[in-house]
Design brief:
Number of helices: 47
Structural class: mainly alpha
Shape: globular
Radius of gyration: 33 Å
Strand order of the largest sheet: 1-2
Length: 943
């Protein structure tokens, strides 16, 4: 059993790049030992190891808790003794360690609380409260940090009885001592006004108090806050306007304790304006005036950015209130707002220009992706647009005067006054755009402005001018205007822009060519009446490239639009993409870039694979299999599985190449299936293998491995859907005789799961699988009846009436209902089991069939079979999560192509059954069904 010293050595080794994987593997081996987590905590708490080792331990502990605290059912995965000991020790330990360790342990505590608080950890709040002190700021800060880590979970949650039960549990125990601490902290700050060291720690406390005040009131106004709101808000107002030279930092970049606290107060004020204006309204004017003064006093230094942003958010919330917005209604006030608040925070600063030059990718991300939500420019724009919403014509007139002024300044000396034009363009875009989507750009504009005329007068010349004749930022402004207002321009105007944009791709300026790539991507993605607006008929170093997902997305879009018209260029593009893949495999650092790179490879395979499959199979084997799979590039493995699938499917009739055949045994390795991110892609890859080489699975007992994987997948709610995908392919591509020895075991596994923890997805997939087998010619209804009865004699009747028939009627997808029609038809007309032993269920079978054919399904609000295993590209992050490649989407397969018109199919099959059984089925129809049911069946048979 590993001791603390061994764990520490492994943690140190894990920080060495060439040894980290081996060290992490050894840590994962010993982490299942009883007491491991406690030893890890003791290491983090000890002052003996170096800080980097303690930090690695805290990180590992957080990830360990995330993996091992509970299973899908909420059951503890660790011994009860370890669970109790962790909950007993972690609060005291977190309070005692340095702040950088507190952050990681706080996240671990939040994970535990997500599962256990408060029903299984009802002592937590009392424990926290008992540790609060009148004057020990270090201890208090630790307690408040833990509390915030737990209570902040409430912020994004929807209201529910269980949520408010938890919140009330906290409020009853926590708020009174919390407010007492708030008052004592205020007093201590006053007493220590000349003690810089004490002030810094006390403002950390105050900052946490502000955050917790938000947490405690995020869902509803806490009663004790409502009762004492005047006193509480007076203290908050005191610190919104507080100044002390001892808290002014020399660093112009990083916000200090005072700036962070004031930012938090503004965020809290925004909450109260939005949710509790009825009780807060009388105090609002005082706060709004103080915030106005605060904004006019703050300098342009980046350390003030978050505070300026939060203050503007608060004023935006004030302007959103029809009652309080009237204070901004006059032209005189609006002019002052624009001049004193909007313009100073919208104008380009030296720090913005430095970001443009020194960190261009961050400049782009802030500007294009909305990650600039806390920048001065974006916040000032939001405030201005809110005022525009309230006072449309007045705001437009006031701002237009400044736009005209700045454009005139630029025209007098373009070389020197280029910043004036940048401000003018940003102002115009701020008031011209009134509604936009990511796909289309601006779709609603200010009726008082002509965006096309403004483009022709002030923008087009900058696009036409040679790349080096206009300042790069103005070039970016022009390109971004095209990007933003693309839906307001005609196809002809946009087509004329393509040659101009292509010219800018050759710019040496990173931001210029990246914005160009983004704009080309968005223009090519435009649609009109559901069809692409443009078709193929319309006319750095690898490490540095890997930072720029915008360029790669442009490449992807061009390949998708071009489809198979890339012709001879496809081979060149493939080679370049594989070079990039090899480079980024060394250190996957940009998930979006990686995704677009693999989408681009998918486009090459999808559109050129059918015409040149053997060449592609040869070209991609080494980089995919030897480069990524063998080297275990975890982040890329799910992508490779999808691309290999697409590759195999593009030549589905050809024999399986030997080098791909050699992979089968590796794909069945249970360790590969431990990562959930691999599973959706692996299942589909096995399905693709089965279409081309089912016979290879018959060798070396590989079929047993496939069924073992099925058992693993169906045992989990997360993967049960994929288990049925796999099993349907097994019964599609393998001879029934080869499967016969396994059939009983398959149904034992399924019935055990149905009996133990039936879910809606499990039930619907089981029913679909049932009808899939009963409808197939190779199996049929009696094969299924015998297989189920082999599990336990006579159990089919109970399962059929209690599960299969009721859940059949819950099928909502057209493909699933079609499969049910095929299965129920076979059961109705061709099953000896339903003709003899289980004939009592025959009328119910017919009624289920008629309901499927005649009654429209009830569509639930949420489709239970929606694939929960995929993530949107905006959610892509580091790790081996599964993100579906759009270029690799699975083609829909019609399992029963013979069923074209379901009613006609049923009628023809019933006539066939009547002929085969000497009229037996016709006798049942006449004697065992209602008149309405008989009439419908006769109608089907008459065609």
């Amino acid at each position: 059993m590993a001791d603390i010293q061994t764990i520490g050595q492994l943690l140190e080794t894990s920080l060495i790049p060439h040894h980290n994987k081996e060290a992490e593997k050894n840590l994962r081996t010993i982490e299942n030992e009883p007491g491991f987590a406690l030893k890890l905590l003791q290491l983090v708490a000890s002052n003996s190891p170096q800080m980097h080792t303690r930090l690695a331990g805290a990180l590992y502990f957080k990830n360990f808790i995330s993996r091992n605290w509970t299973d899908e059912e909420g059951r503890y995965k660790m011994p009860k003794e370890d669970v109790d000991a962790i909950k007993r020790e972690i609060i005291g330990l977190m309070i005692s360690v340095p702040a950088n360790l507190q952050v990681q342990l706080g996240e671990a505590t939040s994970i535990i609380a997500e599962s256990d608080f408060f029903e299984r950890w009802d002592t937590l709040v009392d424990d926290l409260v008992s540790r609060l002190t009148p004057d020990n700021t270090k201890v208090n800060n630790g307690v408040l940090q833990v509390a915030h880590a737990i209570f902040k979970r409430w912020r994004p949650l929807f209201r529910s009885d269980s949520l408010f039960t938890e919140i009330n549990h906290v409020l009853e125990r926590f708020t009174a001592p919390f407010l007492k601490l708030f008052e004592s902290t205020d007093a201590l700050i006053t007493q220590n006004a000349n003690n810089q060291a004490a002030l810094k720690e006390l403002f950390q406390t105050l900052n946490l108090i502000v955050k917790l005040s938000f947490d405690l009131n995020c869902q509803d106004l806490a009663p004790i806050f409502e009762e004492n709101l005047g006193t509480i808000m007076a203290i908050f107002h005191k610190y919104l306007t507080y100044t002390n030279p001892l808290l002014v930092t020399d660093d112009d970049e990083e916000a200090g304790a005072l700036e962070r606290t004031k930012s938090g107060i503004c965020e809290l004020l925004q909450l109260f304006v939005g949710k509790y204006e009825d009780v807060f309204g009388s105090m609002l004017e005082n706060f709004a005036n103080s915030t106005w003064t605060l904004l006019t006093d703050l300098g342009p230094q980046p350390k003030h950015d978050i505070l300026v942003s939060k203050a503007l958010h608060f004023l935006t919330a004030v302007a959103r209130s029809p009652k309080h917005a009237q204070s901004f209604s006059s032209e005189t006030v609006l002019t002052q707002v624009v001049e004193k608040i909007i313009l100073p925070n919208m104008a380009l600063r030296t720090s913005d220009e430095e970001l443009f030059e020194d960190d261009p990718i961050e400049f782009i991300r802030r500007d294009l992706e909305g990650s600039d939500s806390d920048t001065r420019r974006r916040s000032a724009t939001d405030f201005l647009r809110q005022l525009l919403e309230q006072f449309d014509k007045t705001v437009t007139d006031v701002v237009w005067q400044y736009i005209t002024h700045y454009l005139q300044q630029y025209s007098q000396n373009p070389g020197e006054n280029w910043r004036s034009k940048d401000t003018a363009l940003y102002l115009f875009a701020s008031i011209a755009a009134k509604g936009s989507t990511e796909r289309k750009g601006v779709i609603h504009t200010n009726l008082h402005l002509d965006v096309v005329q403004f483009f022709q007068t002030n923008i087009a010349a900058d696009l036409v001018a040679p790349v080096d004749d206009v300042h790069p930022i103005l070039k970016v402004d022009a390109i971004k205007y095209l990007y933003t207002f693309r839906s307001q321009l005609t196809k002809a105007q946009l087509s004329d822009a393509f040659p101009l944009l292509a010219k800018h791709l050759s710019s040496t300026n990173y931001v210029v060519y990246t914005y160009t790539a983004v704009t080309i991507d968005r223009l090519l993605a435009m649609t009109a009446d559901g069809a692409p607006l443009f078709t193929s008929q319309d006319g750095g170093t690898p490490e540095k490239i890997a930072e720029n997902e915008f360029l790669m997305r442009c490449v992807m879009r061009i390949l998708i639009v071009a489809r198979d018209s890339t012709g001879p260029l496809a081979e060149f593009v493939l080679k370049e993409l594989l070079k990039i893949t090899a480079e980024i495999s060394k250190n996957p650092s940009n998930p979006r870039f990686n995704h677009y790179n693999f989408e681009s490879l998918g486009a090459i395979i999808k559109f050129t694979g059918p015409t040149n499959p053997e060449s592609l199979e040869g070209a991609l084997y080494e980089p995919f299999v030897l480069g990524i799979l063998v080297n275990d590039v975890t982040e890329f493995i799910p992508y490779v599985f999808q691309l290999l699938t697409l590759l195999l499917e593009s030549n589905s009739q050809a024999p399986l190449p030997q080098r791909y055949n050699d992979l089968i045994q590796s794909l069945l390795n249970p360790a590969l299936w431990e990562s959930r991110g691999n599973i959706p892609a692996l299942v589909r890859l096995l399905q693709a293998y089965m279409t081309r080489g089912a016979s290879e699975f018959m060798k070396e007992n590989r079929l047993t491995g496939v069924l073992g994987i099925f058992q693993k997948l169906v045992s989990s709610k997360i993967t049960e859907n994929h288990a049925f995908d796999l099993m349907e392919s097994v019964f599609t591509y393998f001879p029934v005789a080869a499967l016969q020895p396994y059939t009983k075991d398959i149904f034992i596994i399924l019935l055990t799961r149905l009996n133990g923890s039936k879910t809606e997805i499990l039930a619907q997939r089981f029913v679909r699988f049932f009808h899939f087998l009963t409808g197939k010619k190779e199996t049929g209804p009696d094969f299924v009846i015998q297989a189920i009865d082999a599990v336990q004699a006579g159990i089919f009747g109970e399962l059929y009436t209690a599960v299969v028939l009721p859940d059949t009627l819950k099928l909502i997808r057209a493909a699933d209902r079609k499969i049910a029609v095929a299965g129920l038809t076979k059961l109705t007309g061709f099953s000896e089991g339903l003709a003899t032993t289980y004939h009592k269920a025959w009328p119910s079978t017919v009624m289920a069939l008629l309901k499927i054919l005649e009654v429209e399904p009830v569509i639930p609000k949420e489709d239970p079979l929606a694939d929960l295993q995929t993530a949107e590209i905006d959610d892509v992050s580091f790790g081996a999560s599964f993100v579906r490649l759009n270029t690799c989407k699975k083609r829909a397969v019609d399992v029963f192509p013979e069923v074209v018109d379901s009613r006609k199919y049923v009628g023809e099959k019933l006539k066939e059954a009547i002929a085969k059984t000497g009229g037996r089925v016709d006798g049942w129809i006449s004697g065992e069904l209602s008149e309405e049911a008989r009439a419908l069946l006769r109608k089907y048979m008459q065609g």
